[in-house]
């Protein structure tokens, strides 16, 4: 998988022939180029975005027009991927994502290129069509490959995802796979189980010892979700219980669930990790041999 090239603020400013203050001013005013943050909270700009903006400025465009052109160049990746998927061409689809990774972080490549392409296929052909089945199968495989090469964090937290989708071709399924990827990249060990699978759940919980639970997807009935959540609470106590791509529709689920996460997987992943950190700050460690810990939702 192609490694994305990034630039520090000073490097990006030099490439654009402006001062770092001007670059930050453009970021505040136009939201472009949009940086990531390093582990030390320093700005890191994607090389492709900066080069696209430089080329537009070199053509004599004003900054607002140059940013519009640069953004359009970035959006073009979506059209390339969509064309590959509609042609049922896995190789071209892989190449389109490799090109997308040259311009943006992996999370943004998925959310800004892959997911919009699949949504366009839903609009054109429907979520029960052959083009959708092909595209979502390819996308799920791509996301799983990306997850497999995600480094294991040194001191990870643990997250249990309750899959409440109807299966791999559910419209929300790829968003759930993306959440798993983004949560792993945010520093968590993630395990996913279907919410219909209550027997033997205690054995998994004893081994995995999750710090938070995410109920993800809208297809499973509320009764199944409530039974699954109750089994977790019975085994390990009141863990933070979060919702992703699911509305609270019944009293039993409402009693089990906590906050609703952002629909964007990259944002939701940070919210999950932040919820765990907040809980750790608000609880007092219990000495070995004393009363077992409980966690407030």
UniProtKB/TrEMBL annotation:
Taxonomic classification: Bacteria, Bacillati, Actinomycetota, Thermoleophilia, Solirubrobacterales
HTH merR-type domain ranges (all copies): 6-47
GO molecular function terms attached to this record: DNA binding
Stated name of the protein: HTH merR-type domain-containing protein
Region annotated Disordered, chain positions: 278-297
Pfam families, per database record: MerR
Coiled coil (residue ranges): none
GO biological process: regulation of DNA-templated transcription
Superkingdom to which the source organism belongs: Bacteria
């Amino acid at each position: 998988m192609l490694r994305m090239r990034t630039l520090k603020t000073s490097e990006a400013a030099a490439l654009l022939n402006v001062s770092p203050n001007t670059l930050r001013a453009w970021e505040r005013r136009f939201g472009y180029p949009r940086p990531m943050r390093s582990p030390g909270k320093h700005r890191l700009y994607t090389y492709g975005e900066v080069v696209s903006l430089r080329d537009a400025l070199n053509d004599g465009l004003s900054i607002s027009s140059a940013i519009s052109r640069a953004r359009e160049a970035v959006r073009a990746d979506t059209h390339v991927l969509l064309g590959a998927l509609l042609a049922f061409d896995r190789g071209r689809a892989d190449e389109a994502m490799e090109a997308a990774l040259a311009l943006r972080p992996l999370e943004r490549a998925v959310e800004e290129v892959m997911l919009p392409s699949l949504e366009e296929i839903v609009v054109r052909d429907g979520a029960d069509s052959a083009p959708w089945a092909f595209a979502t199968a390819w996308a799920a495989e791509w996301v799983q490959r990306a997850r497999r090469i995600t480094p294991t964090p040194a001191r990870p937290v643990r997250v249990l995802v309750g899959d409440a989708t109807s299966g791999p071709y559910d419209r929300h399924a790829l968003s759930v796979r993306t959440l798993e990827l983004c949560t792993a990249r945010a520093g968590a060990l993630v395990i996913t189980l279907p919410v219909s699978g209550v027997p033997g759940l205690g054995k998994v919980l004893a081994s995995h010892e999750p710090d938070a639970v995410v109920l993800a997807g809208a297809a499973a009935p509320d009764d199944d979700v409530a039974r699954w959540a109750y089994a977790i609470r019975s085994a390990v106590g009141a863990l933070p219980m979060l919702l992703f791509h699911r509305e609270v529709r019944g009293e039993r689920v409402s009693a089990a669930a906590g906050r609703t996460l952002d629909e964007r997987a990259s944002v939701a992943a940070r919210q999950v990790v932040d919820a765990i950190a907040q809980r750790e700050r608000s609880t007092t460690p219990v000495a070995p041999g004393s009363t077992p810990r409980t966690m407030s939702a």
